[in-house]
Amino acid sequence: MSGGLLALSIEGTRVLTAAYVVAAVLVVALLLPLPGVRARLRVWWPIALAAAGVGALAGSLLVWWVVDVQDVFGVAASPVIRGAAAGAGAGVGLALANLVRTRWWRKVVAIVAIPAVLVAGGLMINRDVAYYPKLGDALGVTGVSALALNHAAPRPALLQDWKPPAHMPAHGTVGTVDIPGLVSHWRARPAWVYEPPAARTAHPPRLPVIIAFSGQPGSPSDLFVAGGLQAKLDAVAHAHEGLAPIVVAPDQLGSFHANPMCLDSPMGNVATYVTVDVRTWILRHLPVATSRQEWTVAGFSEGGTCAVQFGSERPDLFGSFLAISSEIFPHDHTIPRTVREAFHGSMAAFRAAQPLVVMQRRKPYPDTVALYCVGAEDKSYGGSMTKLVAASKRAGMRTTSTRLPGVAHNWNTGSAGFAWGLPRLVQVWGLP
Prior knowledge:
Number of helices: 15
CATH class of the largest domain: Alpha Beta
Helix content: 40-55%
CATH topology of the largest domain: Rossmann fold
Order of helices and strands: HHHHHHEEEHHEEEHEHEHHHEHEH
Strand order of the largest sheet: 1-2-4-3-7-8-9-10
Strand content: 5-15%
CATH superfamily of the largest domain: Alpha/Beta hydrolase fold, catalytic domain
Largest sheet: 8 strands, mixed
Number of domains: 2
CATH architecture of the largest domain: 3-Layer(aba) Sandwich
């Protein structure tokens, strides 16, 4: 498949309109009793409508089972998602009805209509959650390869003394790296790393660091593919003569659907992986600052919860955190399941690991900056942010929060959250 086709935006109006029109035309063609249907009109209409109704019910039940019962995504489905699933199901049901007692050419139309309505419904859902911007992303072809590390010795000079060299790259670089769990024994998928233009020079300065986490279910790539993080970081670099944070997005999940909750537990030593293995790898391989003031943890959804956990548990390592749509405490589906699988059945241990309790126990935090944001339409996680903000202020953190207008709990929020948080972090790091 050509690079141009892989770069096709599947969230744009043209592609969406074309997909919706094609699906609608095929559905109308299958609904009308045109030639090719052997049943009489008074018999065909009840059959077609009943088939469409059964399909719509099946699509709705699928969303109910996956989202409401299994709680795979940890958040309720929006009306758009439920409507798209019901609509796609109705189209499939109608197409299946057209495979019985119809002529061969009408069967062909029905077979073509099935993927058409499924694609239209999938594109509608994707637009709602803002997960795959391009066709290549949806097919798993991101164009990102292993990062070629720059082994040049960092400059000992302060960032304020930085002068960009003549041949500095115009943009930052994103690539993947393997960060082994030498101490934690955590088996992670490849991490994604962003290096700003200044880091790719012959004598790079020591730059601030963000350890960033995706949501769950998810992958490290989500921050850059769905969150559009590279463009935001390049904008920071453009405004600061090539200077921007190095961002490392490690795999805190282990697999797409797993959720070990950034803890050390029977589910895996993720906390040790992040604070020891990942941190050590960064210090050895990247031109980064060593001061806690220039180290930040950030994330969206489950990743935002991780940011609050590390920011409150390890103020000795991280001077700031950005929590986008954070949960009130780490949990995997239900509290009983979380206590059983991650805390050896101890409710006391579960409570002790909650950020609200950690902040109360470890306060004061005189030198920690806490940034929180959530979608204004996100009623569930909005309540969590209110409690976390209050706890952070009581603990002495320099706390700032906002509700992002027009978004709920999806990657529209994740993207907007980083756009809101990065300029505030620039002030914390003291980029000139």
